[in-house]
Amino acid sequence: MADTPTSIVVLTGAGISAESGIDTFRSEGGLWEQHRIEDVATPEGFARNPDLVLGFYDARREALAAVDPNPAHHALARLETEFSGELLLITQNVDDLHERGGSARVLHMHGELKSALCQSCETRSRWDAPMSAKDGQRPACPVCKAPSLRPDVVWFGEMPYQMDRIYAALATCDLFVSIGTSGAVYPAAGFVQEARAFGAETLELNLEPSEGSHFFATSRHGPAGQLVPQWVDEVLG
Ligand code: BJW
What we know:
Blueprint: E1 7-12, H1 15-18, H2 31-34, H3 37-40, H4 43-48, H5 50-64, H6 71-82, E2 86-91, H7 97-100, E3 107-108, E4 111-118, E5 124-126, E6 149-153, H8 163-172, E7 175-179, H9 191-197, E8 201-206, E9 218-221, H10 224-236
Parallel strand pairs: 1-2, 1-7, 2-3, 7-8, 8-9
Antiparallel strand pairs: 4-5, 4-6
The protein binds ligand BJW.
Residues 13-15, 18-19, 24-27, 30, 41, 92, 94, 110, 153-160, 163, 180-182, 184-187, 206-208, 210, 223-224 line the site of ligand BJW.
């Protein structure tokens, strides 16, 4: 691995928030064992049964209030403050634990639980409240007033946010680090090959070998709460 990276791209997934008490998707008992993906994480599922989908995201937004960032989130915030090179922190997570852990610049490629997207005027608004209908009325968009809000998250078949910025960073970084993600969902699962193709070193920090482990030059296995602070200490010397 390069001794002193000058430009780092970090990608995080559900595993980084697991020790905070947030369910991952694909583990035993995870979210995709509790709910059918096609029902709650596709635009077609939302069109079929908006109440089911709004309830699913309302419950997850509410659960977020009861959890705290863990040492892995805090370590990445320290990296942002103390690393003298360039850092892009990309998360697939819709939680706000990176921000609450102290990271000021986070790219949420799959959107955010605390954001609403209006299907009428396409405005994205900060949103903390339930989005489900109350007394038969769905809440109104703060801008156009239409009752057309949906969770501002990226479902299967939709384009993740800020892909141009992500691919530009992958082409110029000298270290790509993937933390707590199964490597099962594209385009994020392909970032390691993209970064490698441009000559970056690649490092995986995950509880166990992910689906894409073999693409990484180096893999370390264990809980993010231990591995991430250790790695950040190494980078910062
Ligand atoms: C720990 C730990 C601890 C646990 N410490 N680690 C066929 C081939 C290729 C692609 C496709 C295909 N058919 C369809 C596609 C495309 C599709 C896709 O990838 N499907 C796959 C199922 C194959 N992708 C899309 O549709 C995407 N859009 C798209 O492709 O647009 C076109 C495009 C073209 C070209 C360029 C760009 C775009 C959109 C995908 C949207 C995903 N949305 C979700 C829901 C978001 C909202 C929500 O949260 O509800 O995103 S699905 C879900 O999966 C969520 C996550 O962000 C994402 C990834 O999950 P993640 O984070 O990896 O979690 P897990 O649970 O899978 O893994 C956790 C890991 O942590 C595990 O490895 C554990 O071991 C580990 N772990 N505890 C460290 N303590």
